[in-house]
Amino acid sequence: MxxxxxSTGNEGKYKEIVSTLGDTFDRYYSxxxxxxxxxxxxxxxxxxxxxxxxxRKVGDRFNMATLADDSGLEIEALGGKPGVLSARxxxxxxxxxxxxxxxxxxxxxEKRGAVFKAYxxxxxxxxxxxxxxxxxxxxxxxxxxKGDLGFGYDPIFYIPQLGKYLAELEMETKNRxxxxxxxxxxxxxxxxxxxxxxxxKR
Length: 202
Ligand code: ITT
Prior knowledge:
With 202 residues, the chain is α+β, with helices and mostly antiparallel strands. The chain has one domain (3-201): Maf protein, CATH 3.90.950. It has helices spanning 11-21, 47-62, 93-103, 171-177, 179-201, and strands at residues 3-6, 27-30, 66-75, 82-83, 113-124, 129-141, 157-159, 164-165. It starts with a strand and ends with a helix. The relative contact order is 0.15. It binds inosine 5'-triphosphate. Residues 8-10, 13, 42, 69-73, 86-87, 116, 150-154, 178, 180 line the site of inosine 5'-triphosphate.
C-alpha cells in the first residue's frame, strides 16, 4: 500500500494535489489526520529549501512518505515580489490581492507580466531521500479580480492563451496547465519509471 502525507495547511493546494495525483498513491493523509501538530518555520529565501523542510519534518515525525509544496507569484513590475513571501503579503487572500492591485496601480498591461512557480518536495524517510520537482506558468496580473474558483491569487492571474483568469478555470483544467500541475505531473512520470524499474528487478 502506497501512502502519502500532503504537508500543507492550505486547503486549496491540498485539493489540487490529491486531484492531480489521483491513483498514483493508494491513500492520502492531510495534516488534519494527525493529532500532533508539527510546526515548520519557512525561513529560507529559496522555495525548494522551504518545500524540503515542510516535507522532511512531517515525514520524519510520522515516518511516512511526505509531499510538500512551496510556491509563489513573481511579478515583473514589482521586481519579482511577492515571490517566496507570497503567503505573507497580507492577512488573507482578499487582502493580498488588494495589495498587489494597489502596487500595480497605473502600470500598463505590457508591464504586468507574472509567473507562478511551484517546487514540490517528495521525501522518503526510509531512504532519507528528497526529490524536487518544478513547474511554472506565465501570465499577466489583471486590473481587477475575476472568477471565484481556485484560491490565493487566482482571481488576478490572467492567461492570454485561454483568454481567462485562473479563477475562471475548473480544477481539472487548472491542474493541466498550472505551475503545481506541471510539477506534479513531472513527479508522476518519475514515479512511474521508478515503480517500473523496481518491478522489473523483482
Ligand atoms: P503551506 O506552506 O502550508 O503549504 P501556504 O499557503 O503558506 O501553505 P506557501 O508558503 O507555499 O503556502 O505560499 C504560497 C502562496 O502563494 C499561497 O498562500 C498563495 O497565496 C500563493 N499561491 C501559490 N500557488 C497558487 C495558486 O495555484 N493559485 C493562487 N495562489 C497561489
